[in-house]
Structure formats: structure tokens, C-alpha cells
């Protein structure tokens, strides 16, 4: 990395990021089980959904916002769910989580040194 001062932000995004995704998938799986899907099916579907979304994010043209809009039919089930995520302030939650992760990474670097 050319700019060392970015390392804590990179840690908050890429270092901690897999845990964020696993937490979201865990929540999706649990919600599906609450809606009567068998646990194994819910787990498989959540993981395959993540794989498909990641593949689209890596291989399709456009921003993530554009990709999200492409898979969201206006007035449909996905739109209703995304409206709930927005109303519950998911972007703000992620911003707060990543901010605390960045700050903690900086604190840990100070405590244990960067050498």
C-alpha cells in the first residue's frame, strides 16, 4: 500500500469485512428458518446467494447501487425489504461499525507497535 495512513481504514473494510458478511448471512439464515425453511436449506441458499451477488459485483458493469437497482423490481418484494433496511438505517450502522473498527485498529497498532 502506498499510503500507510490508510491501513486502519483498509482493516475496517477488508480485514473485518468477512465477519460483517458472515453476520448478515447468519441473520438471513436465521430469518429464513423463522419463516419455516429447514436450517440446511436456509444455510445453503444464503451462501449461494452471497456467491451469486459477489460474482455479479465482480463481473458486471456498474456501481453497487446500480447493481442493487437492477435486481430490485419497483414495488416488488425486494424493494419492500430494501425499504426496511434503509428505514432501519443499515448504511449508518455499517458506517458506525467500520468507524469503530478503524479506530480500534489504530489503537491496537499503537499498543503493539507497527514494527
Could you please describe the fold and organization of this structure?
The protein is mostly helical. The protein has a single domain, classed as ProC C-terminal domain-like fold (Orthogonal Bundle), CATH 1.10.3730.10. It is built from 6 helices and no strands. α1 packs across α6 and α2 packs across α3. The chain starts with 6 loop residues before the first helix and ends with a helix. The model has no long low-confidence stretch (mean pLDDT 94).
Secondary structure elements and their pairing?
Elements: H1 7-15, H2 17-34, H3 39-59, H4 64-70, H5 77-87, H6 90-112
Helix pairs in contact: 1-6, 2-3
Question: How many beta-strand elements?
Answer: 0
Instruction: State mean pLDDT (0 to 100 scale).
Output: 94
Q: Tell the overall outline.
A: globular
- What is the C-level CATH assignment? Mainly Alpha
The fourth-level CATH homologous superfamily is ProC C-terminal domain-like
Label the structural class.
mainly alpha
Computed Rg: 17 Å
Number of domains: 1
Which fold name fills CATH's third level, the topology? Answer: ProC C-terminal domain-like fold
How many helix segments? 6
List unreliable stretches of 5+ residues. Answer: none
> What share of the residues lie within helices?
over 70%
Amino acid at each position: 500500500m502506498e499510503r500507510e495512513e490508510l491501513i486502519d481504514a483498509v482493516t475496517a473494510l477488508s480485514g473485518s469485512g468477512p465477519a460483517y458478511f458472515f453476520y448478515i448471512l447468519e441473520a438471513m439464515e436465521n430469518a429464513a428458518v423463522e419463516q419455516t425453511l429447514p436450517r440446511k436449506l436456509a444455510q445453503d441458499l444464503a451462501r449461494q446467494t452471497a456467491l451469486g451477488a459477489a460474482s455479479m459485483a465482480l463481473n458486471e458493469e456498474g456501481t453497487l447501487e446500480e447493481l442493487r437497482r437492477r435486481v430490485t423490481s419497483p414495488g416488488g418484494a425486494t424493494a419492500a425489504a430494501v425499504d426496511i433496511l434503509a428505514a432501519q438505517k443499515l448504511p449508518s450502522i455499517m458506517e458506525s461499525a467500520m468507524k469503530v473498527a478503524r479506530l480500534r485498529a489504530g489503537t491496537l497498532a499503537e499498543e503493539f507497535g507497527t514494527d
